[in-house]
Amino acid sequence: MKQFFKSILLALGVVMVLAGCETGSSASPPDEVNVIAGDGSVTLTWVMEPDVEYWVFSAAADGVTPENCSSLPECKTIMAAVSPLVVSGLTNGTTYSFTINGRIDGGPGGTGSAPVSAVPRLAGASWNAGASLGSVDLHGVTYGDSFLAVGSGGSMFSSPDGISWAALNSGIATDLNAALYGNAGYIAAGAGGVMLRSTDELVSWTQLVSCTTNDLYAMSYNGSQFLAVGANGTIITSDGGEIWTCRYSNTSSHLYGVAYGNGVYVAVGVGGTIQTSIDGINWQAALSQTTLDLKGVAYGADIFVATGTAGALLTSTDGMTWMPQTPIASSPTLNAVIYGNEFYGTQFVAVGNNGAIFTSTDGIAWASPASNNTNNLYAVTYGNYGYSSVGAAGSSLTAY
Known about the structure:
The chain is mainly beta. The chain folds into two domains: 25-118, Immunoglobulin-like; 128-399, YVTN repeat-like/Quinoprotein amine dehydrogenase (Methylamine Dehydrogenase, Chain H, 7 Propeller). It has one helix at 2-21, and strands spanning 25-27, 34-37, 41-45, 53-59, 76-81, 85-88, 96-104, 116-118, 128-129, 138-143, 147-151, 156-159, 166-168, 176-182, 185-190, 195-198, 206-208, 216-221, 226-230, 235-238, 245-247, 255-261, 264-269, 274-277, 284-285, 294-300, 303-308, 313-316, 323-324, 334-339, 348-352, 357-360, 377-383, 386-391, 396-399. The strands form nine sheets. Strands 1, 4, 5, 7 and 8 form a five-stranded antiparallel beta sheet that branches. The chain has a four-stranded antiparallel beta sheet with strand order 9-35-34-33, with no helix packed on it. The longest helix is centred in the first third of the chain and has 20 residues, at 2-21. The radius of gyration is 26 Å and the shape is globular. The N and C termini lie far apart (69 Å).
């Protein structure tokens, strides 16, 4: 019995010592908490004070507080949050609320800020012009940690948001037609088989040996293998993005677009050409049922979508069997198509001549948001929770 009471007293002593050593305190809730809805995401901003650690509480309901969050659907707590904060993985069309409290030196959290609410929604319905990038035509755009746009005369530009752009030095004067980001860094490709790579976040560029002198028009990445396509049926692959190998494509037609999805590569081109491969090495022709030039192809929502001249639209679930769909309106040539991002439930966006932009959630029914631009659009990508499109005469557009 004495031993029992001795243990109790010892435990109480430890608790008292720990309590006496606690120096942290709660902090007042932050000021100017704002939320902006994105595609499957929101962006939170607030005024940060020095030495305060902020926790964000979110839930799929109105009126979240630090105290009731655990009882609400999709409660999430983000510790050591920093403004601006992007909260992703949200469901479009659902109301989410957010509150933020603060603590100092590991103390208890203070009162939460007044809840703010937002409803995530599909991007692509509203497009805004970014800064003009001069008179150069931009033919490729991609997103890694930043947007990269490439174009005529070796022109290159980077942007953190698709709105404000800065010129880069590519070191060459050759036209660049495509840009891609993967685990080997950023890669740009273009006329005469030229290929460049940056592994230091767009600071410097190294010219690679691409194994071809044919023009390269498009690139794709499946998570382990890079692939580029181009003139005269050119297809080249690389496992690490540095050493490239030419492959037999089974066609001499120009290939303008390529995509990977559902375990299959699909390359599209002149006269309705479609070539498919499961490994990027061995290729076979697929019947497209069209003679129109196909300029772009994308995979998302369990379907391939190919677009091209005269608003051409084809779809396929496996990359081999294709079905022509009603052309997208009476649109001009559609030069590129992208599927936003499967993790955020976004949509297809196709861009083309005369500022044409079309969006679709299923690849068959398309809407036509105003681009407020009449220049030809040559490329589109998804990143930073929205779309960026670039084109003739330095055009750049964004939709968030």
